[in-house]
Amino acid sequence: RFHVVKTFGPTSGLSGHLSDYVGHVDFTPNPYVTMQYRFRLAKDTLANRRSELSATVGPALLRVTTDYLFVKAGGTPATPTNTEELFVTVSSRVSQNWNVTLSHRHNLAAAGGSIRTDIGFTYEDECTVIGLDIAKDNTQDRDFKNGIAVLFRLSLKTVGDIKFNADVGARR
User: Fold this and answer.
1) Residue 61 gets which letter from DSSP?
2) By the 8 A CB rule, do 161 and 154 touch?
3) SS3 state at 12
4) What is the rounded distance in angstroms from the CA atom of residue 57 to the CA atom of residue 77?
């Protein structure tokens, strides 16, 4: 920046003339293995403020993806404490047109626990995508209640999307 901006907090990485150092390393030795590392380092101390590590292994028949996330507290008002999460996805293309996906997000903090678990079924051909996702959310906030959510998706590839969402059993 050409001038100091006071809009952002001192730990946001955006308060001075220079921002924090950010980077991305991508390693894909073959079509069945992909690894990525993303990071944000403090510009003055090189302290780790954010790290994301992702690995995907397997063919479309059975693919496993794991993501690890660490965000240091205080970078933004939305992160008053350290965030540490593990996200695991298992997907399978069971036929040419059908895909099944299972995923789970877990908070690794001392008082953490399950954040979200879901299963999805998708049918896709040259004209349409039809999907059904069922999720159990275990977190809540002012505008977001925990519970079971069901999402039906219909996408006409040449026209657009139609989505129907129902919060089944969610607390109001």
Assistant:
1) T
2) yes
3) coil
4) 35
**Tokens linked to 141:** 């906030």
| pLDDT tens over the chain, length 172 residues | 455 656 666 555 555 667 789 999 999 999 999 999 999 998 889 989 899 999 999 999 999 999 999 988 875 566 667 889 999 999 999 999 999 999 999 999 888 899 999 999 999 999 999 999 999 999 877 787 889 999 999 998 888 766 766 666 554 4
Smallest CA-to-CA distance from 118 within 134, 106, 107, 98 is with 134
Query: From CA 94, how far away is CA 131, in angstroms rounded?
Result: 14
Nearest C-alpha neighbor of 63 from the set 26, 19, 93, 98: 93
| pTM of the full structure | 0.77
Residue reference for tokens 């977001």? 144
Helix (H) or strand (E) holding 121: strand 114-124
Q: Are 155 and 162 in contact (CB under 8 A)?
A: yes
Residues β-bridged to residue 21: 41
Handedness of CA 134, 119, 110, 8 (dihedral sign): negative
- Alpha-carbon distance of 3 to 1, in angstroms, equals 5
- Amino acid present at 13: G
